[in-house]
Amino acid sequence: MNDSRALIRAACAVASVAMMAMAAGCSSVSQQQEVQIGQQTAAQVNAQLPMLRDAQVDSYVNSLGRSIASRTSRADLDWQFAVVNTDVINAFALPGGFIYVNRGVLARASNESELAGVLAHEIEHVVRRHSVKQMEQAQQANVGVGLVCILTRVCENQAAQAAIQVGGSAYFAKNSREDEVQADEGGFQNVIRAGINPRGMLTFFQKLLAEEGSGGSGGANAWFADHPGTQDRIADIQRMLDATPAAQLSSLRTDSPQFQQMKRRLAQLPAAPPPRQ
Ligand SMILES: [Zn+2]
Q1: Which of 144, 171, 204, 230 is most solvent-facing, going by the fewest CB within 10 Å?
Q2: How far does the centroid of ligand 1 lie from the alpha carbon of residue 233, in Å?
């Protein structure tokens, strides 16, 4: 219950920043405002979710994430990557360049290419300002429900509870299928620009789909709830791979010693706490 209140407080903090932006008569959210909203939300997320906070793992994830983000059109953002200490497979992005990846993704990824695909997808949500656009649209429509409902799902008690249980997977707005396709397409290119083989996007999604189909431990359920249309997206990624020259793909790296070092470190750390009930 404390968690519920904390989540609502976090949402209020975000809303107050966004409301200030509106009160200033802005018809659109500036980059400065976007970063401010992101910073405030990130501070709350960091305080409320079980963060892994292992220097070695954080350093690797930041280095990989920044190598991808620095080759996008929003290289000027101060990109921050953090690991949530839960086995639930998920990742999410806050406005302004704050990317969160759950430990479950690191544990399930077999090579750098698979992790890069997940990070690049979340990076593209920020590059395309998907959550900012949701805020702007609500503002234009003069929607009275407030930004809290757009930025988080605290309006729906059950969803808020679910967000807490899975360690923040549902913290942020649910992306539309269109946003997901855009994030995949841009993410695919982001991975290539970083010199990494985008095939990992395909193999990681296939792995999650197989897990879901087998009715296994359910670690991937949150992923499917937050990232709709996984099957169609696998087909799209396959098409993009088919359209990429084989010589180009073979020139890109699939793994790195640093990734395997991170995996070994992860295996040494105490197990993640079970998702809160
Ligand atoms: Zn997404």
Answers
A1: 144
A2: 11
